[in-house]
Amino acid sequence: xxxxxxxxxxxxxxxxxxxxxxxxxxxxxxxxxxxxxxxxxxxxxxxxxxxxxxxxxxxxxxxxxxxxxxxxxxxxxxxxxxxxxxxxxxxxxx
Length: 94
Prior knowledge:
The chain is α/β, with parallel strands linked by helices. The model has no long low-confidence stretch (mean pLDDT 87). The two termini are 15 Å apart. The protein has helices spanning 28-41, 51-54, 59-72, 86-93, and strands at residues 15-19, 46-48, 75-78. The protein has 4 helices and 3 strands; from the N terminus they run βαβααβα. It has a 3-stranded parallel β-sheet with strand order 2-1-3, sandwiched between helices.
């Protein structure tokens, strides 16, 4: 487990994957862009947001890719609406 409150913790090397609701949210792109910028501003240099691939793929094609992102990350950052998303719940469970 990573202790993000440890003063010697190097946030710049941590890979963060952001999960949250996409389907049915007309503002999902802005929401993920905002959290991406927030995390980058706070020193997390390796941030993955699902909007990097969801624009061109239907959910059934994106779902397996998202689990690969989860597997490759050190931290999952769950937005407040993650429980309203089947995909985000699967990512968190994984």
